[in-house]
Amino acid sequence: MPRRRTKTSWLHRWSRPLIGAIAVLGATNTGYLTWTRLFGGNQCGIGCGPVLSSDYATVFGQPLALFGFIAYLGMAIFALAPLIIGRDDKTLRISVDQGTWWMLFVGSTAMAIFSFYLMYVMVFEIAAGLCPFCIASATFATLMFLFTLFGRAWDDIGQLLFTGIIVAVVVLIGTLGVYAQIDKPIAGNSATQDSEYYVKAANGKIYFTITDTSGEAEMELAKHLNQIDAKMFGAFWCPHCADQKKLFGVQAIAEMPYIECAPEGPSPQLELCSQELGKASEKLRPIIGRDAGFPTWKIGDNYYSGQQSLTDLAQYSDYKGPKDFKNTLN
């Protein structure tokens, strides 16, 4: 009597293509974040800023999204390569299939655990809004884990459970080690002994530390901008706003006409920001193709989008003082 062929469930048939498709989506998401962080120009948008500009978004000096992109790309290769490799060699195909399933399990488990940690950080540590890109990445990682776990008939559940526990422990220990040196809130004034300036949220969480010093020209330009009622609209979490302050230097920052626009920032002026950025967007949208973000300068009746060189600010404001600026725009 011939043996009845066991019917394969749709999930087992389609698990690899589904994992591969999700990994491609995750790579697209993190690739976009990496590109905008490294090459996205000199302006900060509003949406995910507090999260993507926090210390948690940088690992070993590189954007965390870059490592996410590499991980998703690896998962896509593990998921899809066996569908192509070994089509004419059954032994090779079986070997590649088995090996990559374990790689998919280890990778998806690690990514899911790390994503859960980042969701906790976003909600309870940063606590400055929810980032759709981050939530999407965590969703992708969780779906890959579930499709890997249930998309195959695993032979040894005990070994699978043991491997999962080991991966989870290693990921958590490694994650806590990587983030152990993140700055804690520091009380007191933003400037310390006139040599360092801390860009902080209202809760004292430090986002940037500025150590560049000011020359006479930087001090005089900052005072001049204040006197003519110029304004720089920015947010504490915006790296390009911090870079703009670095150009002026620690001593001149106190003289800058800076307006905080983030609700979680120190002394925010939300109504003024809403009004002025709305006007700026109307004027700049036809020129830059998007709404005004951070930083945006208002000098007279004109608006200037993005980080500006001190030479340009001097020209825009009709500054007549010394122009031998120490700090230049890279």
Description of the structure:
By secondary structure, this protein is α+β, with helices and mostly antiparallel strands. It has two domains: 10-178, VKOR domain (de novo design (two linked rop proteins), Up-down Bundle); 191-316, Glutaredoxin (3-Layer(aba) Sandwich). Helix content is 55%, strand content 9%. It contains eleven helices and nine strands. It has helices spanning 10-39, 49-52, 64-80, 90-126, 132-150, 157-178, 216-227, 239-248, 250-253, 270-288, 310-316; strands at 58-59, 62-63, 191-192, 196-200, 206-210, 231-234, 258-260, 296-299, 302-305. The protein has a four-stranded mixed β-sheet, covered by helices on one side. The chain has a three-stranded antiparallel β-sheet with strand order 3-4-5, covered by helices on one side. Strands 1-2 form a two-stranded antiparallel sheet. The longest helix has 37 residues, at 90-126. 37% of the residues are buried. The model is unreliable at 185-193 (pLDDT under 50).
